[in-house]
Amino acid sequence: MFNVFIIIINFFIFYSIFICLVNLFWKKKYKYIKNNESLSILIPARNEEKNISKCLSSIIKSGTSFNEILIYNDHSTDKTEEEILKFTKNDKRIKIAQTKKLEKGWIGKSFACYQLGLQSNFNWIVFLDADTEVTGKLENLISLAKKNKLSMLSAWPKIKMDSFSEFFFMPLLNFVVFTLCPMVFAKDLKSENLGIAHGACILFNKKTYIQKGGHQLVKNDLFEDTRLARIWRNQKERTYCIDGSNIISVKMYSSFFSIWNGFKKNYYPSFSNDYSFIIFQLVFFVSYVFLPFFLIFLLVFDSIDPLKIFLLVMSFLPRLIINIKFQYNFILIIFHPIIVLVMLFLGFNSWWSFKFGKGLMWKDRIYEK
What we know:
alpha/beta, three-stranded mixed β-sheet, globular
C-alpha cells in the first residue's frame, strides 16, 4: 500500500522530469533571415535611475539596428529623466514619450506599454524592461517572427545573479516555468496554456498589436506578459517564447526583500482562479517538500531499499535537469525542498495580501487583484 501511495505522488514528478528533458532541446541558437523592417524599441521606466543608462548603453553597444527608442518616464520621482536626457542629446533616435496620468483600472506598466505602443512610429515594436541589458541584435527577433509567422515573440532572458539571495531563490522562476511548460512544443501547438512570455523582452507586429488592443487587454493584470500571450493565442494569433539568454539579460532583484516583494506581486495573480492556485500549492508541497523529507525519514529510521532510494533521487531530478539547462550551482540542489517551502509560504502571503489585505505596494502604487 505504501509503495502504491508513493508512486501516485511521484506521478507529477515523472511528468516534470519529462518536461525538463524536453526543454533541454529548447535551444538559444536560431537561423535568422536578413530583413529591412523598421523597429521601435519601447521602454517603460518608473524610478529607474540606476538601470536606464545601462539599458540604453547596452542597446547601442549591441549593434542593434533600430529606428527609434521611445521611453515612457512613468512619473518617476528620482533622476530617471535626467539619465534619459543624457542620451537624447547625443542620439535623435532616442526620445521621451508623452506621459499621461494613470487612468483608473490600469496597472502602471500595462498603461505605460500601451501608451508607448500608440506613440511608436514603426512596423515592429519591442518592449524592454528598463533593468535589462541587450547582448544580441534585437532585429533578429523580427526575422524569427516573420519566418514563423508570429505576431508576438518573447525572448526569455538570462537572469543575472550576484547576491546570495539571488543564487538561492532566483532559479525557482525557471524551475517552476520549465517543469510545467514544454517550450519545444509551444511553437507548433496552438494550446492557450502554452502561451508564455517574459516582460523583459516582447516583440509585436505593431499593426496586429493595435488591432487586437495590445496591453489594453491586460490593463488590470499584474501577470500581464504571459496573460497577454495566452489571450493572443485565444484570438488565433501565433506566439512563441525563445531562449533569449544570448540576446538579453536582466537583473530582476538584488536582495531577499526585493525578491519576496517582486514574486509576491505576481505569484497569486498568475493563477486564473483559487482552485488552480490551491492545486499548485498542494502538488508542489507534496512532490518537492513532503516526499523528499518523508523518504529521508524512512531511509534513516525504517529501512533502506532500492525503491525508496530511487524515488528520492527522482524527487530531486527535475531540479538537477534545470540546473544543467541554465548552468546553476549544483550545491544548492540539496536545499531544494527548503527553497520550495519558502516559495510556498511566499505564495500563501501573496494570496492573503490580495484576498484579505490591502493589496500590494509596488513602486509606490497599491494594486489589488
